[in-house]
Specification:
269 residues; alpha/beta; Rossmann fold; Dihydrodipicolinate Reductase, domain 2; 5-stranded mixed β-sheet; 8 helices
């Protein structure tokens, strides 16, 4: 049985716990959250993960030491809890890829994994085709464009509110155009997909990103366009938002759950 620690217990963490609860190959033993969230997390965990300990720091000692850590807490958690787990030799699954927009963050993650003799998996989250993109880069890719289109409500509480009146939109509005690095910095809760595409492809500087608030849609639409020596690739996903968090696609949860289950699978994609 794989002992699992989850960092973060917001909408993604809670839904993942619900989906994993009936898996006899996995046991959620630790939930790591910020101090102010401990009491509320204990209340929520009692329903979906009654056997888990709610902590403010990862416990890497026996008997609680996890076999796998899954992060879904946001950028700061990657540079704190994930780094610590990797240095302790615990493999990690990371959802908040936007955290790697900082120049040294990727190198720090890699160094921590090397120190602990383990590995970190960057999940595809709300987008698909990362295997094809990474493979295409082996032969040479000239251009990668990611276009993220979401309903206006998904952009509340972001810099998009300074670009346009989101509640009054009657037509699509481009709220950002630039590099994936800048998109991840400005929209940390919305642009993990942009960072994912960049990290699998041409990098954070060379990947072009366009983010759009569109009052005519109800789904989160992710489009990737790639050209190179292999030919041309176009992928578009129209994801339903997570009911408890419209900034996140439900597919992001399923991607995390799939990666966690693969830790105990014999054959997997």
């Amino acid at each position: 049985m794989v002992k699992l620690a989850v960092v973060g217990f917001g909408a993604i963490g809670q839904e993942a716990a619900r989906m994993l609860r009936g898996d006899a190959r996995l046991q959620l033993t630790q939930i790591v959250v910020k101090p102010h969230a401990v009491d509320e997390t204990r209340r929520m965990a009692a329903e979906v993960a009654p056997g888990a300990c709610v902590l403010t720091e990862l416990d890497v000692s026996l008997p609680l030491r996890p076999d796998l850590l899954a992060e879904c807490a946001g950028h700061s958690a990657v540079m704190s809890h994930v780094i610590m787990a990797l240095q302790a030799g615990i493999p990690c699954v990371v959802a908040s890829l936007g955290a790697l927009h900082k120049a040294d963050s990727y190198a720090r993650l890699e160094a921590a994994a090397e120190c602990g003799g383990t590995r970190v998996q960057l999940i595809s989250g709300a987008v698909g085709g990362m295997d094809a993109l990474a493979a295409a880069c082996m032969g040479g890719v000239d251009r990668v464009v990611y276009i993220g289109r979401k309903p206006p409500r998904s952009w509340y509480g972001t810099p998009a509110e300074q670009v346009c009146a989101l509640s009054e939109l009657t037509a699509p509005c481009v709220i950002f155009a630039g590099s994936a690095r800048e998109a991840a910095r400005k929209f940390p809760k919305n642009a993990n997909v942009a960072a994912t595409v960049a990290l699998a492809g041409l990098g954070l500087e060379r990947t072009q990103v366009e983010l759009i608030a569109d009052p005519g849609i109800e789904r989160n639409v992710h489009r990737m366009e790639v050209t190179g020596s292999f030919g041309r690739l176009e992928i578009q996903l129209e994801n339903l938002p997570l009911l408890t968090n419209p900034k996140t696609s439900a597919l992001a949860v399923y991607s995390l759950v799939s990666a966690v289950r693969n830790a105990s699978a014999r054959i997997f994609f």
